[in-house]
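@channel sequence for tomorrow's demo:
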Amino acid sequence: MIQFLNSGGQDVEDPGARMRREHSQWLTWAMGSGKKFPRIPIRAVNAGGWDWLMASPHGRRTAGRWWSAALRRVLGRGE
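structure tokens (generated this afternoon):
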């Protein structure tokens, strides 16, 4: 196991462990929230997954904007 230390030499949470913990917390919240979230498709888009969304220009734009925003956040390029 890799130990991560901050500049003061103190232990910090492993980035992978942090991601798993945060994802688990979000899933726990989402499951108990009563909100409806999109289902994860069981087929890739090129194999027919999300056909209903990708069938319209609005759906394609919405998906494109969502992925652009998500990747900017993940890559640290703003909100």
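heads up for whoever presents: Residues 15-33 form the longest helix (19 residues).
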